Amino acid sequence: MASNHFDVVIIGAGLSGIGAASHLERDAPNKTYAILESRSAMGGTWDLFRYPGVRSDSDMHTLGYSFKPWKHERAIADGPAILDYIRETAKEYDVAKHIRYNQRASKISWDSASATWTISIKQEGKRASKITCNFIYSCTGYYNYEKGYTPDFEGVEQFKGQIVHPQQWPEDLDYSGKNVVVIGSGATAITVVPSMAKTAKHVTMLQRSPTYVVSRPSKDKFALKLARYLPANLAYLITRWKNVSMQALIYQYSRRRPEKMKAALLSLTRKELGGKVDVDTHFNPSYNPWDQRLCLVPDGDLFRSLRKGTSSVVTGHIKTFTKTGIKLESGDLLKADLVVSATGLELLPMGGMAIEVDGKLMSLPDTLGFRGMMLSDIPNFVLAAGYTNASWTLKCDLTSEYVCRMLNHMDKKGFQYCVARNLDPNMERVAFLDLASGYVDRSIDSFPKQGTRSPWKLYQNYLLDIISLRFGSMQDKEMEYGRAKT
Q1: pLDDT surpassing 90 at residue 142
Q2: Each residue of 165-178: b (16+ CB within 10 Å) or e?
Q3: C-alpha–C-alpha distance, residues 28 and 435, integer Å
Q4: Checking DSSP bridges between strand 374-375 and strand 430-431, what pairing results, if any?
Q5: Which of 113, 156, 211, 370 is 20 to 30 A distant from 473 in Cα terms?
Q6: Residue 480, CB-side half-sphere exposure with 13 Å CA sphere
Q7: Over the chain, what is the mean pLDDT?
Q8: Are residues 133 and 252 in the same domain?
């Protein structure tokens, strides 16, 4: 009979959740744990997204786990390769047996008297159930897995073609020989366009406004050379730090010299497109680099497709759908047999679960993020949240290390709970995510806030976080430890 009480419950079996479980196996092996996964398979994003060309938007030497070298030839990897990597890790650390599939945590309730969480679980076709635990690590990601964001387009009901969202990509979709319009200019759109252009009649990327697009080799020659001469772990570590340093330098330069960075990016884009596309119209954003994430294209695949003419880019606003395509406010008509609505994600904090502390329903926007991983006044609860200016897993790895340190510290000192308390009620509160993207703007009010000083401020700095989370003291005047009341 399966146990219904655990030391730790991890919510989500994606890249972060499998990483969290592997860290427990490595650094806190005495802990019992379960992984709740709302879907029927592990992998999270990398199992869910099946659209053409799905791939990482950063290199796998930093998106991969700190403890498991990325050994594939391509550093900018496709979705299936990343999914294989997650499954390999789960097998290596024997975590798959701890996963409970098709179980959605709908509500978590903390009881101070016993220092335990009760998790209410929904299962399709089954009665609701409950399990208890001492500690929750939420690895749900930040978006709604059920549906993506699609705006209300005028006249969409009269369109005779097909409309799909990349998050719900039909397995049997045949677009060969068809005119395709991809609406969007973010990471998904610039991935889908060159991939579909290989077999479609023509693909048009329709964007309201431009995005910074940067080409990068899919193979890291430095990493491949190191791998020939050094042990795998050492080669991976050196490459990882090389890439982390480059990411940090580019980000800092973008913030301190935005005009120079913008000029450099546009110069590279002009070189890639060779005069075939009007860069000032279609690739010259109104915002500065890193106000939104830079979009990465491996081996210049989008630029190559635009140069060849198998795809094109149009910048404008949609007036209405017609029977045969999309009419723009400019009066231009884009003919389409298929429209791909790559219009973004719908954010969903904590997978949509309700959080109760001693019978009180917690309002997430009223909480503050502690070290970017805990929430004020919510005991024994950690969330995995990655960087906006670097690879997601870099921060999640550090968070998992910190969780293990915290669990071991509490065992050593005889504590049963830890809770972050904000001792400065007058501290200014700001948005948890610092990106100006549309999908963030639409939903950020439902997320926790951050403060303006440590430990409530997110510094988006990997080196600072290593010092703080891997080597910093477990004692903090705004971290309260204690024992159950009974």
Answers
A1: no
A2: bbbebeeeeebeeb
A3: 35
A4: unpaired
A5: 113
A6: 13
A7: 92
A8: no
Q: State the DSSP string of 261-327.
A: HHHHHHHHHHHHHTTSS-HHHHS--SS-TTSSPPEEEETTHHHHHHHHTSEEEEE--EEEE-SSEEE
User: Do 319 and 352 share a domain, yes or no?
Assistant: no
Residue 51: name the closest of 178, 153, 190 by CA.
190
> Domain range spanning residue 376?
5-146+347-482
What percent of the chain lies above the pLDDT cut of 90?
80
Cis amide linkage into residue 258, ω under 30° from 0: no
Instruction: Give Cα 236 distance to the centre of its chain.
Output: 22
Distance separating alpha carbons of residues 452 and 39, to the nearest angstrom: 37
Flag whether 152 is in a domain. Answer: no
Specify whether 210 is located in the same domain as 331. yes
Q: What is the pTM of this model?
A: 0.93
- The DSSP line for 421-457 is --S-TTS--EES-----HHHHHHGGGS-EE-SSTTTS
Split into its structural domains, the chain has a count of: 2
Say what angle helices 258-273 and 301-308 make with each other, to 10 degrees: 50
Q: In the predicted model, what is the mean pLDDT of residues 393-416? A: 96
Rounded Cα distance between 410 and 402, Å, is: 12
Q: Are 80 and 73 in contact (CB under 8 A)?
A: no
The answer to whether residues 312 and 335 belong to one domain is: yes
Q: Which pair of structure tokens corresponds to residue 378?
A: 């919510």
For 85, phi then psi, to 5°, come to -65, -45
- Are 130 and 189 in the same domain? no
User: In this structure, are residues 384 and 137 in contact, taking their beta carbons and an 8 Å threshold?
Assistant: yes
